[in-house]
């Protein structure tokens, strides 16, 4: 009997590598000053989340954050900001996986509209949680830099300006992807 | 084979900073990120700056690499500096431009905050400039070891980090191959309206993901064929060891902290 455990570990690792790779490819529109980019790098994390559920998603997200620190693409300007931005923000993307069982079932029954809407919901949930984390980190950071300012507004504008387009791009792409290749969603073995 | 196979910012070298145990570097930087916030006068900032400069000089990393790491934050440094000039109304008026009064307090505070960002980025990027991602991964595994008792999958996490790092160059070549193949069929990635560009990404991503699944499956099978069954009893290729030079850095750093707290104004 084959154990799924090793495959799980490896698949999460390889897909996290893809996330990191898609983030540094010139294809992504990286114009934001620090630690924020409109890119579709979140897609591999969502795929892992939809294939393996919340656990896989959280693991992949956490790994992605940790690897950004290890490869030096992370920007830490405040201890708390660093922790929230890199340890929490990417991890919570994995919560998209709570729709995994529903999506798996819909794909098996070929129910296109059903799995597409669950995918959109999952991507929305993951992106929203990540946004909340980055937003909080932004408030902490701006608070430490400029006191007595409407820091919540800065953080909202700054983080919203890339998270919102990213969410749209990811949803569209994940839509396209699974419309053409639903089998990528099905759990292996 | 090209040089882009090395992921991250690592600049190879053989300096004291390069040879330090990665755990030493991570620990020192971790505390540095905290103590920077305690600096509040000229002397305390000078101590930290001196420490940072000393580290950079001993690391013998060319300045242009360090400057490259700073590029994304210049905007932020300048932004906060200007904001301080506008909103801080303490001290004496230094200058008046178009009805805007620039106060000495604003200049001082703006400068202090910019200095803090500068120091933070300088020191944190020095870690990734002198340490390979794999060394950092090994160090994280060692440092998180106590969490094993809480059933935190430390070994698995480290294994996955190394595998990810190992696969980035492979996947990068794969991406290049696929995008060339698709470009030869007429897919245009670089120009056109955004909508078309997003659409063009799909024929790149699908083969990339499918091949990633295949690679993952092959590797998992190969590992199991060789008897991989989790972390228990595995030995390591690279062993980390704390040397005299690590102790030296720790002692030096304790002096830096002591100096900082002695000279800062309370």
TrEMBL record, chain A:
**Keyword annotations:** Membrane, Transmembrane, Transmembrane helix
By what name is this protein known? Energy-coupled thiamine transporter ThiT
What stretches pass through the bilayer? 7-25, 31-50, 57-77, 83-103, 115-142, 162-178
Instruction: Please name the source species.
Output: Virgibacillus halodenitrificans
Gene name, per UniProt, is thiT
UniProt keyword annotation of Calcium present: no
């Amino acid at each position: 009997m084959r154990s799924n455990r090793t495959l799980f570990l490896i698949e999460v690792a390889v897909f996290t590598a893809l996330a990191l790779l898609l983030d540094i490819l010139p294809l992504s529109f990286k114009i934001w000053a620090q630690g924020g980019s409109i890119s579709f790098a979140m897609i591999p994390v969502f795929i892992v989340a939809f294939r393996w559920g919340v656990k896989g998603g959280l693991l992949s997200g956490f790994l992605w954050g940790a690897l950004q620190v290890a490869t030096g693409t992370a920007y830490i300007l405040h201890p708390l900001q660093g922790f929230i931005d890199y340890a929490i923000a990417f991890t919570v993307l994995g919560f998209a996986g709570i729709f995994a069982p529903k999506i798996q079932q819909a794909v098996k029954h070929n129910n296109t509209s059903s799995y597409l809407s669950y995918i959109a919901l999952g991507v929305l949930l993951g992106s929203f949680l990540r946004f909340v984390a980055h937003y909080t980190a932004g408030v902490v950071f701006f608070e430490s830099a400029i006191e007595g300012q409407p820091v919540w507004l800065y953080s909202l504008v700054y983080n919203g300006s890339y998270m919102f387009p990213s969410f749209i791009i990811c949803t569209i792409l994940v839509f396209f992807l699974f419309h053409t290749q639903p089998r990528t969603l099905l759990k292996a073995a | 084979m090209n040089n882009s196979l090395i992921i991250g910012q690592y600049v190879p070298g053989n300096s004291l900073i390069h040879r330090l145990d990665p755990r030493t570097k991570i620990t020192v930087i971790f505390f540095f990120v905290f103590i920077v916030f305690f600096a509040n006068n000229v002397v305390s900032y000078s101590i930290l700056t001196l420490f940072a400069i000393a580290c950079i000089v001993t690391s013998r990393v060319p300045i242009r690499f360090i400057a490259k790491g700073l590029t994304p934050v210049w905007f932020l440094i300048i932004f906060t500096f200007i904001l301080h000039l506008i909103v801080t109304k303490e001290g004496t008026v230094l200058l008046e431009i178009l009805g805007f009064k620039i106060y000495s307090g604003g200049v001082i505070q703006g400068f202090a905050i910019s200095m803090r960002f500068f120091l933070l980025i300088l020191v944190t990027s020095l870690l990734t400039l002198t340490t390979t991602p794999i060394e950092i991964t090994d160090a994280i595994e060692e440092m998180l070891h106590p969490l094993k008792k809480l059933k935190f999958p430390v070994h698995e996490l480290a294994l996955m980090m190394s595998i990810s790092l190992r696969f980035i160059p492979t996947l990068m070549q794969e991406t290049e191959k696929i995008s060339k193949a698709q470009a030869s069929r007429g897919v245009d990635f670089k120009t056109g309206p955004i909508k078309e560009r997003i659409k063009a990404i799909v024929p790149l991503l699908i083969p990339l993901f499918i091949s990633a699944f295949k690679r993952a499956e092959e590797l998992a099978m190969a590992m199991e064929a060789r008897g991989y069954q989790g972390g228990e009893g595995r030995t390591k290729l690279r062993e980390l060891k704390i040397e005299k030079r690590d102790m030296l850095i720790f002692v030096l750093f304790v002096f830096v902290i002591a100096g900082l707290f002695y000279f800062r104004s309370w």
